[in-house]
Amino acid sequence: MTIAAHRRPSAAHTGDAPRTFPEHFLWGTATASYQIEGAVTEDGRTPSIWDTYARTPGRVRNGDTGDRATDHYHRWREDVALMAELGVGAYRFSLAWPRIQPTGRGPAVQKGLDFYRRLVDELLDKGIEPVATLYHWDLPQELEDAGGWPERDTAERFAEYAGFAADALGDRVYTWTTLNEPWCSAFLGYGSGVHAPGRTDPAAALRAAHHLNLAHGLAVQALRERLRPDARCSVTLNIHQVRPLTDSAPDLDATRRIDALANRVFTGPMLRGTYPDDLVTDTAALTDWSFVRDGDLEQIRQPLDFLGVNYYTPTVVSHDPDRAGHGSDGHGASAHSPWPAAEHVAFHQPPGERTAMGWAVDATGLYDLLLRLAADFPRLPLVITENGAAFDDYADPSGAVNDPARIAYVRDHLAAVHQAVQDGADVRGYFLWSLLDNFEWAHGYSKRFGAVYVDYPTGTRTPKASARWYAEVARTGVLPPAGRQ
């Protein structure tokens, strides 16, 4: 897989004409279990790695936890009603593994499954397609205590859990995703330590990446064995659009190195059945990759119905011979790097507007990324499973929440998606992140990504201006010109 040349949409691509999406384009919104559910000790649920991490002093801003979150576990009917009011066609949510299989072993807990049965039934009753993600980072703590994702057994336990979920919900749920952003699970969780479980071992991060790949392949097989023939299976990757700071040979090599660690460590085995040779060579001082056993790659490479793509901002890198490999590249403050064997790669912020996360606003990165994936995997449909932005939203004295910056962000990124479709990318849908303001991992409740404003003390939900705007786009399938809301 080669690095795609950076291509910006021309001025003609960003004009003032409305853009009409394909008739069957899927419009949705998304959430994750730990970020919204709360009820972390109810109905048999036991701690996940994020419960443990959030309760560790100094890990999460302001000492915030997901203990209550947005209380979706008790307010799910209200949240589904909000979705119905907004008119979105699909809802991408994740199942909490420790709610279904509390220790990561043994039988499923029916009360946990019943929560998702009720949620899915309500979605279907309101005409909203449920899209279930099996794993959005909340590993049962007991599995982490036994070694976590760096251990092969965790992948095998994941396949068992996938079977429980499919048995319970397969008659209701048509579309399934195995993992959400395994790069974050492996490299932020076990490399830099800015995500749960907070470990800082680069070799363990590489082992975790492989066992997440294996978990994906085993879970797809478990799903296929149980689901109806027309069900769809996928995985969601946060593919990094990696760009060199300059066209110099060292900067291009830095781009190649990060592309291998960010993208091809997953797309290689999942979609091609092999790990990239350059990745293995780059990391040889850390590991001999002996954890990859005979037959693993065949297990990992399973036919997929689409690839989920999460995108927020591009990644700009350069070679820096004086860099010691420490510091942050926008994934949280840490003295440890999430990039094994990339000690001399520096990360740069592009100029221009930023979100509240400090991420550059640049929709051309999404356009480039979709065209690259279309070229590299021409027969694999794509779905944007997350895209959105955090801004410093607030309710004005009348109670309204106006967020023009979010509308502009989403509008520009939808224009990039539309242009990518026009230029040959097979993109089938778009899920706005997120339905609700929620627990934003190590940032706690300080960052608001939601289309719906949540007053955390009361739990009151208020659709922002962007929610109404997005609802109209979803209803009509037409993206209005910039500045027209």
Automatic annotation (TrEMBL):
Among the Pfam families in the record, one is Glyco_hydro_1
Superkingdom field: Bacteria
Entry's Gene Ontology molecular function annotations: beta-glucosidase activity
Q: Which GO terms describe its cellular component?
A: cytosol
For whether the record's keyword set contains Cytoplasm, the answer is no
Keyword terms of this UniProt record: Carbohydrate metabolism, Cellulose degradation, Glycosidase, Hydrolase, Polysaccharide degradation
Q: What's its EC?
A: 3.2.1.21
Record-linked InterPro entries: GH, GH_1_N_CS, Glyco_hydro_1, Glyco_hydro_1_AS, Glyco_hydro_1_beta-glucosidase
Mention one GO biological process in which this protein takes part, according to its record. Answer: cellulose catabolic process
Indicate the residues that form the catalytic site. E181, E386
> Which reaction is the catalytic activity of this chain?
Hydrolysis of terminal, non-reducing beta-D-glucosyl residues with release of beta-D-glucose
- Entry binding sites for substrate: Q35, H136, N180, Y312, W433, E440, W441
Q: Which NCBIfam families match?
A: BGL (TIGR03356)
Protein name in UniProt: Beta-glucosidase
Name the species this protein comes from.
Answer: Streptomyces triticagri
